[in-house]
Design goal:
The chain is built from five helices and five strands; from the N terminus they run ββααβββααα. The strands form two sheets. Strands 2-1-3 form a three-stranded antiparallel sheet, with helices on one face. The protein has a two-stranded antiparallel ribbon with strand order 4-5. It is α+β, with helices and mostly antiparallel strands and about 140 residues long. Helix 3 crosses helix 5. Strand 1 and strand 2 form a beta hairpin.
Length: about 140
Amino acid sequence: MNRNTLRARVQFSFKGETHALDELIDLDTLRVEAGEMPDMHRLLARRAGIDPISYLYEVLESHDLEFPQATGLAANYCHEGRFDWRGFDRARSEEGDWARILAIVQDTLAPRDLEANPALKAALMAAYQAGKASAR
C-alpha cells in the first residue's frame, strides 16, 4: 500500500524578508480527530520554528497554502494546488472499513469475488458501517 503524503507550500514576506516553507507531510501519521481537518498552517509553522503567538505566524496564516503534490490515496484529492481533506478523510475511512471487511470474510469469499459482484460488496460495506454506527 502506498503511503499517503502531501506536499504543502507557502511563500510570504514579513519585515522585508521572504519566507518559503515547503514540507512533505505524511498523512498516515498525522493525528486528527475523525471528521476534523488538520491545521496545516500550524504544522508548517512548527516545522519551521515559527512561534504560533508571533506576528510572523499571523502573516503566515493569512496566506493560502498550496498543495502541489500528493501520493497514495491522497493523490486522488489533490488538484490544481488544492487538497480536499474531507474527501480524502472519507475515502481513507472507507478503505480501512473495506480492509476490515476483507479480513472478516477472507475464509468465505475471495477479494476477486467481491470485486466481480459490486452489489455484494456494497451490501457488506453498508452492513459494516451500520454496525459501526450502532456501536457509537
